[in-house]
Design goal:
Blueprint lengths: L1 E12 L2 E13 L4 E5 L6 H9 L6 E6 L3 E5 L11 H11 L4 H12 L14 H14 L4 E5 L7 H13 L5 E5 L3 H7 L2 E6 L2 E5 L2 H12 L4
Parallel strand pairs: 3-7, 3-8, 5-6, 6-7
Antiparallel strand pairs: 1-2, 1-4, 8-9
Helix pairs in contact: 2-3, 3-4
Length: about 220
């Protein structure tokens, strides 16, 4: 289980401190899928980074009782000077994985071909996202953090991502943050809306989406 307890996150800015999360608390058990809706800049990605351990809260605690992925489709961990293949080799060594089987999977899944032998810094955003998603699938986690992964690639690649993530790993916990409400509705069984630092939970998608729409129209 992941336990988020009274998490407060503040970023200092030239205009003063900006409170991104205010006393956010929830748990995420194995197999649960929590969808979080919110406007741009609401703090959704910050929440994912805190749960992944990439950032620490200003106050409060995040306890990881199971293995947690980095935010999927996030390529920030890549070494830009290295090729795609070298990055796979590097990550395979860190997690003590078999490099050759991993590279076979990544090559087949991404269909990047010769580009895998080019430095990652030369990749387009889409190519980088393909590599990031495939690398995320070679390491098995108990909980996946999914940050706008629906925006990766074309329709065929979306279908392959759906199979790998939601069919083959249906028993895993997931935190899904997305601007696509249908993506959240389709894949989640718990729902929350993040607005002005407050995270509010709703018993069903329709209530959460209604609040999200009112926020978007300035009615909340």
């Amino acid at each position: 289980m992941i336990s988020v307890d009274n998490v407060h996150k503040i970023y200092p800015t030239r205009a003063g401190d900006r409170v991104v999360l205010k006393d956010v608390s929830f748990t995420l058990a194995r197999g649960e899928k929590l969808g979080v809706l919110g406007r741009n800049g609401a703090g959704k990605s910050t929440l994912a980074r805190l749960i992944s351990g990439a950032e620490r809260p200003t106050s409060g605690t995040v306890e990881q009782g199971m293995s947690v992925s980095w935010p999927l489709a996030f390529g920030g961990a890549f070494q830009n000077a290295l090729t795609g293949l070298d990055n796979v080799r590097f990550i395979s060594r860190i997690y003590k994985q078999d490099y050759q089987s991993n590279i076979d999977f990544v090559a087949d899944f991404t269909e990047l071909g010769l580009y895998l032998r080019e430095p990652v810094r030369s990749y387009s955003q889409g190519m980088r996202a393909r590599l990031a998603f495939a690398v995320s699938m070679i390491i098995e986690f108990d909980c996946y953090l999914i940050d706008e992964v629906s925006a990766v690639g074309d329709a065929r690649f979306h279908e392959r991502c759906e199979v790998e993530l939601f069919q083959k790993r249906a028993d895993r916990a997931m935190l899904i943050i997305s601007h696509d409400p249908e993506y959240v509705r389709k894949h989640c069984d718990r729902f929350a809306v993040l607005h002005e630092g407050d995270m509010t939970f709703y018993p069903d998608f329709e209530q959460a989406y209604d609040r999200h729409l009112r926020i978007l129209h300035g009615e909340a």
